[in-house]
Fold this sequence. Notes:
Elements (H helix, E strand, L loop, with lengths): L3 H5 L2 H10 L7 E5 L24 H13 L4 E5 L9 H11 L2 E6 L6 H10 L1 E7 L5 H8 L4 H15 L6 E7 L10 H8 L3 E6 L12 H21 L16 H8 L15 H4 E4 L4 E3 L9 E4 L5 H5 L2 H8 L16 H13 L1
Parallel strand pairs: 1-2, 1-7, 2-3, 3-4, 4-5, 5-6
Antiparallel strand pairs: 7-8, 8-9
Helix pairs in contact: 3-4, 5-7
Amino acid sequence: MNDAAAIAKDLPQFREAVRHGLPYKPLYVKWKLVWACNLRCAMCRHWRDEVGSPLDTDRIVEVIDELAALGCQKIHLSGGEPTLRPDLECLLRRMQRHGIRATMTTNGTLITPERAESLVAAGLHKVNVSLDSPLPSRHNHLRGQPWAWQQTIDGIRALRAVLTRPRSLRLNTVISAANYCTLIHLPDLAQQLRVDRLHLIPMDRHTDDLPSLSRWQILHYNLCIAPVLARKAIAAQLLEHADAAYPFGRSVHDISQSADGRYARSYYDRHRCFAPWTHALIDHQGQVSVCCMTTHQVVVGDLRSQSFTDVWHGEPYRQLRSRTTLPQLPQCPSCDMFLSQNQAITQLLNAT
């Protein structure tokens, strides 16, 4: 979901849309281009499940054109592993033609110097590379392949050579019981690799193979790991503020909520999420959900039989926008993805 600055420029129209449950603009769309992946990550289901065929290139191009007409500003590409799609550059060029900012999350293992150059030349603006630990053995264990760490590092270096925009290369690190103790050294590696930012993500429980942090492990992380990580990362300009090193929160209430997987820490019990007005998640088959927390659970349309415009203006989205009970969906308390953006938008709406 775009930050509050984009909405502030058009606040009266956005306010009316929210007030009356009307569609606004799909400012930010996340697109899971493929289900397949070349890794076997402990926290993930992509390599475990077979889930249909992806949309073909022509259909994706048609939807990109629709998104542009509806006011889309950013499309974030993910998977599975999005670099497995041979038409990725073609899709990026289409986004670039419309002035849509294209970003991507990747495991980095398939990105050679030549592929990095072709992706950026096609219009890729920003890349998040998933790295679970500065220790090769720990990352490889979590990613299920003995070569994963080195190929990810090689991919990061290839991307760094061609991504010249500020804040264009970020490390995503999912924090689990298996890696949190190693993260004290993550800023050191990030600085060596010349990445721009760190993004620390609490783990959502998708499998039984990898536990999330217990309350006591969160306390240990907060007391022993986060302070050193924050000091190093802020000094290297990898984090903007110390709170970013504490994704589970710091108070007794926040830690208790996070230990139960409620990473929004009661925020959505009192406030709404604005994703139904500004965001969509499209999976590889063309099913549309309101966000990645609701994929295959709250499906609002299907691009194999509908236009995106019809989905965006359709009855399932209307019902979500008109919902007044909180939390809006059962998944909301577990989601911290748009938390800071929603807080900023709420302040905007309350300020005038």
